Every structure is written in C-alpha cells, then in structure tokens.
C-alpha cells in the first residue's frame, strides 16, 4: 500500500523541513501580537503560541518514541541534558543581564521592583503560575516557555514509564487541561501534538491519518483553517487540535503543497532562530518606544514601522545569538544523543 511506503519514509525522516517554516509563522505571530497586535488582530499571538506548542509536543514525543524503538528505552538524563543545552544558555544569559541591570539602575523603580518580585518564578520556569504574557514585567512573555519546560519535565517521565498508553493520556489531557489549568498554565496543543506523534509512529495510525492528510493539498486546507483561528478564537481543545492537524499535514508527506514556501531559505532561517526572536523581541520593542519618546520620533510599539524595525533588529540579534552563543552549546548535544 502506498501509505505503508509513506510510513517508512516518515520514520526515516530525521528532520522535518516544513516545521522550520511553521516556526517562522508562529514567531511572526507572536512578534506581531506584542506590537500592532495590541490594537488589532490580537489573536495572532494566541495562534502563534499554540502552533509552537503543537510542534513541540509532536517533535519531543516523536524523538522519544524513536529512541525507544532504536535502543529499547528512553534515557531521561540524556533528554534533559539536550533540552538544557538548547534552552538554558540564551535564557539565563538574558535573565542575568536583566537582573544585573535592574540592580544597577532600577531596583527602586516600579518595573524593577516588579521584576525582582517575579524573578524567582522566571528563573525556575514557573512564571505561568504567576503571570500570563504580562509585558509590563521584564521577561513576562516567557510564561509560554515555562509551559513548555514543564511539559518537557513531566511528559518524558510518563512516556518512559508506561510507553504507548501515554497517547491515550495525551488525548484525555487535551480535553481536560483547559478545565484543570485555566489561564494558560498548560496547553491542550502540547498534548494534541504528542498524540499526533504517537499515532503517526504506529503503522495503523499512520494509515488512518493518511486518508485525511495524505493528499498534497491537505496542508493548504489546514493553513486556511489556521488563518481562520486568528480571526475567530475557538475553544482551547479545538484550537489545539487544529494546530496539531496543521503539523500533521506538513509532516505526513514532505512534498505537500506548502513545502516550497515553508522551506524557502529566508523563511526557514527565521524558523531556525525563532527561539532567539521569541526571547529578544520584547526588549527591542521597549527600546524602540524609549528612543522614540526621547527623540520625539513617531515610533510606537503598536505602529507598523516599529513592527518592521523591531523584526529586522530582532532577526539580527537572534542570528548573532544563534551563531556565537547557542551553537557552541548545541554542538555538545551530540554527547547525549541516542546511540
């Protein structure tokens, strides 16, 4: 059957190129939401964050399931080491730079006092339990990264302990998490992504999804639905499901109709450095606002010129960070890769 051949190709794919393009779309939505999105099309940011969650849930679960298949087990130590080498260097560099700046220049100012009161939560990736996208707090936007880090901490343990039945737990959590963890503390999209990975890893599950997503045009249809979620905020379980469906349409076959634009080098490059763009852009919005006020320039965070200026500056900063700060640590991850 053609879909069995496609399943073999899926299992043999070590890097899903379209996901860099999806990351680019997600991070642009987030950057927009903290600028012009404050005035109109604010759901860009919500959709972008949920897309990030779905990608993370899918990738992490796929990597862990394939590790179990190859080696017979899941090394939690190696997994956590790889995650730390990816997430910690830039994150804690920014955290300690901000902490030093606050102590030196603003510890008695309102924003400085607020940052210091939230610093323990920011430092321990628990800020999602205290604040949700509060841009008035330095690094307040990292609540979404805190959600992912908590998922990275707990989900691999569950997967290592009980294996494939965890897929059904993912399905249950995708439905009940909005009721149990309101206010963005956990996301159904993470568990929809994890469930997608578990289903696609199984040949029968892959065959079932191939019927829906096996056509090249399925990715375009799901992208159209994704655009619709920007205009209409749907319920969290349904929204997470749509994000995972978009991921499914882009990974189930690499030659989907959106593959060329999603793999276009400028788009893919933004996706590759999207972590840096995500972390750095609020500081640049703040800098633009202060410079505009000081020089009486018509630059405000919610204006289109400021958005494009911040986007270019953030890309430059993210590229430098990726090359000189993050890449040396990323090379160390090979020491903790499954053999």
Quick rundown:
The chain is mainly α and 339 residues long. It contains 15 helices and no strands.
Explain this structure.
- There is one protein chain.
- The protein is mainly α and 339 residues long.
- It has one domain (2-336).
- The chain has helices spanning 2-11, 18-33, 43-71, 76-106, 110-123, 143-162, 166-180, 188-201, 203-213, 218-231, 236-251, 259-263, 265-272, 274-294, 304-331.
- Helix 3 packs parallel to helix 8 (188-201), helix 3 (43-71) crosses helix 10 and helix 8 runs parallel beside helix 11 (236-251).
- The protein is globular.
- The model has no long low-confidence stretch (mean pLDDT 84).
Q: What structural class is derived from the secondary structure elements? A: mainly alpha
How many structural domains?
1
Shape: globular
Percent strand:
under 5%
Residue runs with pLDDT of under 50 for 5 or more positions: none
How many helices in DSSP terms?
Answer: 15
Radius of gyration: 20 Å
Report the strand count: 0
Order of helices and strands: HHHHHHHHHHHHHHH
Distance between the termini: 31 Å
Task: Summarize model confidence as the mean pLDDT.
Answer: 84
Biggest β-sheet description: none
Instruction: Tell me roughly what share of residues is in helical segments.
Output: over 70%
């Amino acid at each position: 059957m053609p879909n069995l051949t496609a399943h073999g190709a899926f299992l043999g794919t070590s890097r899903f190129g379209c996901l860099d393009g999806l990351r680019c779309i997600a991070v642009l939505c987030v950057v927009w939401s903290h600028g012009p999105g404050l005035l109109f099309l604010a759901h860009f940011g919500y959709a972008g964050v949920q897309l990030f969650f779905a990608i993370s849930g899918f990738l992490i679960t796929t990597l862990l399931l394939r590790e179990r298949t190859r080696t017979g087990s899941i090394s939690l130590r190696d997994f956590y080491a790889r995650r730390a080498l990816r997430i910690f260097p830039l994150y804690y560099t920014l955290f300690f730079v901000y902490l030093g700046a606050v102590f030196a220049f603003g510890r008695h100012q309102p924003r400085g006092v607020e940052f210091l009161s939230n610093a323990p939560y920011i430092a321990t990736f628990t800020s999602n339990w205290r604040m949700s996208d509060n841009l008035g707090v330095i690094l307040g936007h990292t609540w979404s990264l805190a959600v992912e880090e908590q998922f990275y901490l707990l989900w691999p343990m569950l997967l290592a302990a009980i294996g494939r039945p965890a897929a059904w737990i993912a399905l249950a959590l995708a439905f009940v998490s909005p009721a149990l963890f309101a206010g963005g503390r956990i996301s159904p999209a993470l568990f929809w992504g994890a469930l997608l990975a578990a289903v696609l890893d199984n040949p029968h599950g892959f065959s079932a999804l191939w019927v829906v997503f096996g056509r090249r045009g399925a990715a375009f249809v799901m992208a159209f639905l994704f655009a619709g979620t920007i205009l209409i905020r749907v319920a969290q379980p349904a929204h997470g499901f749509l994000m995972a469906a978009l991921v499914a349409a882009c990974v189930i076959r690499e030659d989907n109709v959106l593959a060329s634009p999603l793999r276009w080098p400028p788009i893919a490059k933004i996706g590759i450095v999207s972590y840096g763009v995500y972390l750095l852009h609020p500081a640049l919005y703040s800098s633009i606002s202060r410079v505009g006020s000081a020089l009486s320039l018509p630059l405000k965070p919610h204006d289109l010129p400021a958005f494009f200026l911040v986007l270019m500056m953030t890309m430059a900063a993210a590229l430098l960070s990726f090359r000189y700060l993050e890449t040396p640590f990323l090379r160390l991850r090979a020491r903790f890769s499954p053999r």
